[in-house]
Amino acid sequence: MDYQTYGDPDGRPVFYFHGIPGAPTEAAWLAAAAQGNGLRIVALERDSLAPHLQGEAYLAELAAAVVRLAGERPVHLLGFSIGASLALRVAARLPKPAAGIWLVSAAAPLEWPDSWQGMGAGRYTFALAQSYPWLFRLLSIYQGWLARHFAGLLLRSLFQGARGADAQLLAQVPLREQLMDVQRQCFAQGAGAYVRDVQCYVEPWAASLAQVRGAVQLWHGDQDNWAPVRMAQALLAQFGSQAQLHWLAGRSHYSCLLDAAQPLCQQLTAHYCD
Fold first, then answer.
1. Which of 105, 125, 153, 170 is deepest in the core (most CB within 10 A)?
2. 9 within 8 A of 38, measured Cβ to Cβ
3. How many domains is the chain partitioned into structurally?
4. End-to-end CA distance of the chain, in Å?
5. Integer Cα distance of 6 and 28 in angstroms
6. Which segments of the chain are extended strands (E)?
7. Domain span at residue 228?
8. DSSP secondary-structure letter at 48?
9. Nearest to residue 212, comparing CAs of 246, 245, 247, 240?
10. What pLDDT, on a 0 to 100 scale, did the predictor assign at position 274?
């Protein structure tokens, strides 16, 4: 599997799972904090895997890639949004417990009823993927066309109803350009990888959490309506004393990732040194 690296090229590896719609270049927002804390963010290029690789075979390949790239080093996983669900499911399939799992704006299993409470427009996308997968694929193809030709329009539609600090993000021109580039890269090779990740997310997967071994650190904005706060609370309850939840006041989804970068990387480095 292909990957990109950010931060300190000689630093301690942390395996990054990007959100959806998203791309490995999301990890660029962590690069400065990673560099300053001696970390190398390894962002897996999931779209480099053939789209027909689905289900258990897909998750097994992600886990195998992490094991192969980690070598003898302890495995530290970092997932954002839907990427957090993949980080957890990969952790459940590792031959040895992960040294640590960091989840930012984490998307929890949809079979937990509380996961839907407080969710914004994403609830319609997920419901469509669950009930009418063929229609969801058509929508994804259209979104891919928008990303290639009218990335700004797609971005504005995704941020409709954004709460907290996310509501002001698109007013920041450099950040808006970065977000549009992430959307373009998400669909650069078509909609196949995007469809796979959404379909993987909306299927039942809560049972696999019982196999997750390793400390879990949750970072979540208290205004998040992409991955509602009930998701973070439910994941905390699931892992109990194994987990710790860090609230970011006034932050939502992407703003949580941006503002958590420095303290999260400091925490990762401290954990490596323990």
1. 105
2. no
3. 1
4. 30
5. 6
6. 3-7, 12-17, 39-44, 76-80, 100-104, 216-221, 243-248
7. 3-273
8. G
9. 240
10. 64
Q: How far apart are CA 90 and CA 103, in angstroms?
A: 13
Give the whole-angstrom CA distance, residue 104 versus residue 179: 17
* Backbone CA torsion sign across 72, 197, 242, 78: positive
- Length of the chain, please? 274
Confirm whether pTM is higher than 0.85: yes
Q: What is the pLDDT of residue 271?
A: 83
Write the DSSP string, 62-105: HHHHHHHHHTTSPPEEEEETHHHHHHHHHHTT-SS--SEEEEES
Distance CA 194, CA 217 (A): 26
Tens digits of residue pLDDT in 225-259? 999 999 999 999 999 999 999 999 999 999 999 99
